[in-house]
Amino acid sequence: MSKKVLLGNEAIARGAYEAGCHVAAAYPGTPSTEILETIARDYRDIKSQWSPNEKVALEVVAGASIAGARALAAMKHVGLNVAADPLFTFSYTGVNGGMVIINADDPGAWSSQNEQDNRHFARAAKVPMIEPSGPAEAKEFVKLAFDISEQFDRPVIVRITTRIAHSQEIVELGEKKDVPVREFIRDPKKYVMIPAHARPRHKFIEEQLVKLKEYSNKSDLNRIEKGTTRRGIICNGVAYNYVKEVCPDDWVLKIGFIWPLPDDMIREFAGLVDEIIVVEELDPFIEEYVKAMGIKVRGKDIVPLLGELTPEIVDEALNKNRPLNSVPDYRNEIPGRPPQLCPGCPHAFVFEVLKKLDLHVNGDIGCYTLGVLPPYSAMHSQGCMGASIGMNLGFEKAHGPEMAAKSIAVIGDSTFIHSGITALIDLVYNKGTGTVLILDNRITAMTGHQDNPSTGKTLMGEDAYEIDLEQLVRAVGVKRVITVDPKNIEEFEKVVREEIAVREPSVIISLRKCVLIKN
Amino acid sequence: MKNVIFAGVGGQGVILASKILMEAAKNAGYGIKESEVHGMAQRGGSVDCHVRYGEKVYSPLIGKGHADYIVSLEILESMRKLDYLALDGTLIVSIEQINPAPVTVGTMKYPADLEEWIKSNVKNYKIVNTENAVKEVGSRKAMNIVMLGVLSKYLEFSMAEWETAIKNTVKDKFFDMNMKAFNAGRAF
After folding, report:
1. Fewest CB atoms within 10 A around its CB: which of A97, A151, A317, A341?
2. Would an 8 Å CB–CB cutoff place A312 in contact with chain B?
3. Torsion of CA A26, A32, A36, A41, to 10 degrees
4. Residue B42 above 80 pLDDT?
5. Where along chain B do its domains lie?
6. Which residues lie below 8 Å from residue A37, measured CB to CB, with a gap of 6+?
7. Which residues of A touch B19 (CB under 8 A)?
8. How far apart are the first and last CA of chain B?
9. The CATH number fitting domain A346-511, selected from 3.20.20.140, 3.40.50.300, 3.40.1010.20, 3.40.50.970
């Protein structure tokens, strides 16, 4: 078989292909975006799509699975928050065809609003989770995830982190396994979660977890690697590589099966060494579990809780080695290089005006979040995807309608479709008078130019209905809808001034293509 | 084991340069690991790629103090990476200057003494002016490949191996231009 250098996300796409996956859906989000992009580019037998958000993506995948297909959803860590609702209940229904969720955490928050550790989701939703340590493993783990899913009737989460998603190594390519789409047999007791059905299903999934623990104990996803010292390191994901590099003589328990954890193997490991240290990124997930088993371990008292680990951080924590400095420190401060809006970016015109008018700006997630940085410094609160409109209404509820004349919600076209539209319905329904500025640059720009329902193209490159934002906004009851080109800066400023002053909901669509769109 | 860091500004093409190096290392039968930056930082921010190759490579990241080569496509960016340089490591840097935001908006100055400072504080360095090279090649975008050409003189791969690696990595219509850029780099 041939070998290829693949990015972690490309290897995952390859794994889906080799596993005979039929359907894949996602909403773009760093560091997970390239998974679906690769599937759509290289593995066209898989029906792949961008969904409006992660919840819908997971629901499409759950539907495909229950209907009998092997199906995969991919999302970044905060995307799984959006998709948590389907996750927790499709955990109850289980699957028909294999159902796999790729979850990409972002320790270090390289491209994210937080550093949440989604291993907790596996435990809370009672679904198995496995975690590879590199791209080659990632491909194999995805294939295995489909098998585990079908064998135990569970959705399976494959957890990766930024350093797996965006690292490359040599991957051996395998053959595609042809898996037929299974028959769907109506079974409301399994697939309709009314309380009377949910209670017995809860019992079922607890029983499956017991079986999965046995499986985890025997699985070669977990392995003990012999050392020559009396010290043992328990580690997972990318941290395994750092441990192997800086502690080549220690015993290692590599955990690939994150949930359920392999109790027997952990006990066996504890019997082989005199002391154990858990090296894991973010939360003390494994550490607390092992401690609860009554085994003495160290972990977050020496390994950092915050940010991502690196070889030198692990070396210092475990071996007390400090990095060698071959070059003295430069005497002056080096100017930072924060990311910037591109030259000619339409958002730049918008933020110039918002800054001038000194409005309170409730922002959202996209390139335009960079409006918070100099030279604009024109964004003052922001949370998650779609939050701007609800937050802006909250500001008005807190301070009265005068606040609506001094504040504005700013949201991109793709983010508006993702989860802004429901908040706009709230604004109209609950008699807000605020102004919403939709930055329509005709693309999902931040994650590297993906299509969305307003671009008129699908992920697989087909023409699609191009959603009419003006019509959509009018349909929920907004009467004042104005589309304006922000490059026409005087006109744009005039429109903003008028709309914030009006005591009724209004939407300004700031329409100008992203400068990076090639024609 | 060889550890190489490519550094630069989002858009300069550090990922492509590292891809070509990985291809050469793969064809020579080495194990490879690489780590790169996507997403928000790419919007004109600082970016880097860590490339490691050898018999058995575990970590996709190079530890501080362990880089054999740092190849920086912009001089200020090289300064952020110096703590990665190994005791006998070499810094290969272009004198190209791209003003970062704090300089553009006037809150900070672009340090004027970087070239001099590197000469007196870094043991092994190669400072190159790629201005004429990219002019000859006809594209500023080829600077990454010029710098890869400079690096290639320090590494074990033959010219034929580099040529194959470039051929396998770039689009056919850009092959000649990239070879020209690569050879310009080797001439430094």
Report:
1. A151
2. yes
3. 160
4. no
5. 2-186
6. A450, A459
7. 5
8. 25
9. 3.40.50.970
The answer to whether A344 faces chain B, any CB pair under 8 Å, is no
A185 and chain B in contact, CB less than 8 A? no
Q: Count of CB contacts below 8 A, A vs B?
A: 165
Interchain contact, A312 vs B63, CB within 8 Å: yes
**Pairing relationship of beta strands A275-279 and A231-236 according to DSSP bridges:** parallel
Distance CA A22, CA A24 (A): 7
Query: What stretch of H or E contains A210?
Result: helix A195-218
Q: CB A328 to CB B121 under 8 A?
A: yes
Question: What is the distance between the terminal CA atoms of chain A, rounded to a whole angstrom?
Answer: 39
ipTM topping 0.90: yes
Distances (CA, A) of A82 to A75, A393, B105, B165: 10, 21, 38, 42
Residues in chain A with CB shorter than 8 Å from the CB of B63 are 245-246, 310-312, 315, 323
Let me know if domain B2-186 sits in CATH 3.40.920.10. Answer: yes
Cβ contacts (< 8 Å) between B72 and chain A: which residues? none
Write the CB contacts of A310 (distance below 8 Å, at least 6 apart in sequence): A242, B61, B63, B64
**A33 to chain B: which residues are within 8 Å by CB?**
38
Q: What is the CATH number of domain A3-218?
A: 3.40.50.970
pLDDT tens across A6-52, in order? 999 999 999 999 999 999 999 999 999 999 999 999 999 999 999 99
Whether residue A48 lies within 8 A of chain B, CB to CB, comes out as no
For residue A449, give the 3-state DSSP assignment: coil
Spatial neighbors of A16 by CB under 8 A, at least 6 apart, are: A24, A35, A39, A43, A46, A72, A100, A142
CA–CA distance from A68 to each of A23, A96, A111, A180, A395 (Å)? 11, 5, 35, 9, 47
Query: What does the pLDDT look like over A183-224, one tens digit per residue?
Result: 999 999 999 999 999 999 999 999 999 999 999 999 999 999
Cα–chain center distance at B16: 10
What is the mean predicted confidence (pLDDT) over A405-411?
98
**CATH number belonging to domain A223-319:** 3.40.50.920
> Looking at the partner chain, which of B89, B101, B107 has a beta carbon nearest the beta carbon of A340?
B101
Residue pointed to by tokens 């099966």: A257
Cβ contacts of A311 on chain B, cutoff 8 Å: 59, 61-63, 66
Determine which of A3, A37, A112, A168 to mutate to test the interface with B (most B C-beta atoms within 10 Å): A168
Quote the CA–CA distance of A133 and A244 in Å, as a whole number: 11
AA identity, residue B24: A
Residue-wise pLDDT tens digits, A432-455: 999 999 999 999 999 989 999 999
Instruction: Tell me what percent of chain B is helix, strand and coil, each rounded to the nearest 5.
Output: 45, 25, 30
